[in-house]
Structure formats: C-alpha cells, structure tokens
Design a protein that fits this description.
Number of strands: 12
Mean pLDDT: 87
Helix content: 40-55%
Strand content: 15-25%
Number of helices: 8
Length: about 220
Amino acid sequence: MRLLLIEDEERLAEALAFILKKQNYGIDVAYDGNTGQGLAESGAYDLIILDRMLPGKEGITLLKELRGQRITTPVLMLTAKDSIHDRVQGLDAGADDYLIKPFATEELLARVRALARRPSQLVEVENLRVGRLCLDPQLCEANIDGEVIKLTLKESQLLELLIRNAGKVITKEQILDRVWGLDADVEFGNVEIYIHYLRKKLGFQGIKIETIRGIGYCLREID
C-alpha cells in the first residue's frame, strides 16, 4: 500500500514517515500544497494523509480540486483546528476521515488501517491530449491518429507529467520526485533511459521531447 503524506511541519512529517515505513507502507512526503497536489493527481496512491494548513495551497482548497477532478483516493485530514465547523468543512470538501492534532500514533495507524479496508475505488483520470497525441493514463496507452501505443506504467506516468506541463521545462529532479517518488533509490540515468524509451515509441509524429541541456526536458508540439 502506497501513501502520500502532505505535511509542512518537517519534523512531524519525518516522524510520521518513519513510523509508516516501519509498518511496511510505501510513503512519499510533500511539504507544501502545490507539490502535494501534483503527486496526488498522479493517481499512484492508495491513501493521502493531508494537513489542512499548508504553504502554497491550503488543504481544503487542494482537496476540493482533487475531488473536482474525480480523484477518489481516500483522504485522512490532519488539523489543529478542532471546532465542529472546521470538521464539517473538511468532510464536506471530500475528506474521508479527520484527525485532530496532537494525536496518538496508535490512533493514526488505526485510522489508516480502517481506510485501507474500505472497498477500493478506481481513480477516474481524464485522457490527456497535446497535438495529435492522446494519452489514457488508466490503460497506459498513447494514441496518435488512431495508432495505439502500449506503454509501461513508468512510461505512462512520465508522459502524463510531460503532457500536463507541455511547453514547460521539467527538471530531472522533478521527474524523479513525481514518477519514482521522493524516497526512491534511483538516479538521473533512469530518467534518461525512460525518455529514450518514450522517444522511440512515439517517434516525432507531431510532438517532440526536447532535451534542455543540464536542466531537464520539455514536451513541445511541432508542425
């Protein structure tokens, strides 16, 4: 089971990540709302633990935007706000459970287990398009003018990241974080290999994965 923890208090985030890893959960950590949302939108997680007060994008706003995209990943919201109004606001935004800080580790783990026992729901992710290229992230398939191109999971996740940021430069560090996870034991060479795989499979049929030397890559539409 893979979890995403979005928490800006670094000491708390590190402690929770350590505890969850000891329970054999895979865990990625984001320290601000924007980074957390980008990871959450990948659909790669079974559960999101979300702090309410975050820099960049506040937790309630982030959660509403995820639910607006029909991303149904269970969310356990953490907050120091303990009024009934605050709890209702969080649940109405789409949270599946609510835990007030400070909390006992045993209670956090119990709530994670409870959410994990719920029947799984498919994350509905829309097809993505740039130029003549269309990507179905759920099927890991690209389509160019009716030609279906099968992709591996990592290839699909990498292409999704590039399409969502078409025309923008994505650094190798960002690719490692978003595709492999913040704590993955992988190197920049992995990124280069998978970029090579994508280029070989997609060719230059209306799109180009451009190398920005010393920085990263950019997906551009070409004539």
